[in-house]
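Hi all, posting the design record for the shared folder.

TITLE: backbone redesign
STEP: 1 of 1
STRUCTURE INPUT:
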């Protein structure tokens, strides 16, 4: 089975510790509790995967810190990356940043 790492109990994403093919299960722990989910997308090693439903506009939390905001609804097991996350800091490519 593939694995993912959750660092902080407040995180809503995990980091893939393996390449996780779409349709495959992966395991992760939050504190002493262990869970399994099925990957919706292909998740590359080191990339983020949602471990709970994240609504559009909700904060993305990794390592206990806000790293962005969901630009669309994100399902558990879905890849979390620039296609569905908007940064909360200036990007430099938008007027006014």
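Okay, here is what came back for every position:
SEQUENCE:
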């Amino acid at each position: 089975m593939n694995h993912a790492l959750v660092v902080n109990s407040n995180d809503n994403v995990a980091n893939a510790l393996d390449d996780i093919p779409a349709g495959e299960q992966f395991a992760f722990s939050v504190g002493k509790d262990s869970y399994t989910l099925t990957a919706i997308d292909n998740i590359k090693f080191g990339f983020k995967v949602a471990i709970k439903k994240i609504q559009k506009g909700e904060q993305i939390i990794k390592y206990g810190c806000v790293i962005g905001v969901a630009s669309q609804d994100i399902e558990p097991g879905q890849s979390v990356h620039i296609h569905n996350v908007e940064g909360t800091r200036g990007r430099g490519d938008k007027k006014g940043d």
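COMMENT: The chain has a mean pLDDT of 93.
Let me know if anyone wants the other runs.
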